[in-house]
Write a structure and sequence with these properties.
Layout lengths: L1 E6 L15 H16 L4 H6 L2 E2 L2 E8 L8 E11 L3 E10 L4 E11 L1 E2 L4 E2 L4 H7 L3
Antiparallel strand pairs: 1-4, 2-7, 3-6, 4-5, 5-6, 7-8
């Protein structure tokens, strides 16, 4: 499990003054990136090898609104590793009161960038993932 913080800026909010729903997926991406970084998995190195990890499924339940200047903590963990994909679980909390704002997941598949075809997760990456 990895934590990352984000302070809500005006650009994150909608006309109602609350965080626009799609921004949670951007924060989930930050959580994935930082979780990988903590495991010493470098997205740039994967990209240089011709491997991408696009989201093929995403889901989020929203419980409470986040607003301008809130500090949101995103907790990300790996809940499933398959031959070609990883399922990440995310929770977003308001930092000052630990209130659950949203919870969801993404499934990312490993893809050969040139062929745009799924590939097995490289063994060196699998080893790092299983130490989480």
């Amino acid at each position: 499990m990895h934590k990352v913080e984000h302070r809500v800026i005006y650009a994150d909010t909608d006309a109602g003054g609350v965080v626009y729903y799609a921004n949670y997926f951007k924060w989930f991406e930050s959580g994935r990136r930082e979780l990988f970084r903590s495991l010493r998995i470098d997205y740039n190195a994967l990209h240089n090898k011709g491997i991408l990890t696009p989201v093929v499924e995403a889901h989020c339940n929203y419980f409470k609104p986040a607003r301008y200047d809130d500090v949101v903590v995103i907790k990300t963990s790996i809940v499933e590793i398959k031959e070609k994909s990883i399922k990440f679980h995310n929770k977003a909390f308001r930092k000052n009161n630990n209130e659950l704002l949203a919870e969801g997941y993404t499934i990312n598949v490993f893809v050969n960038a040139k062929k745009v075809k799924s590939v097995s997760i490289p063994e060196d990456i699998k080893k790092k993932l299983k130490t989480d």
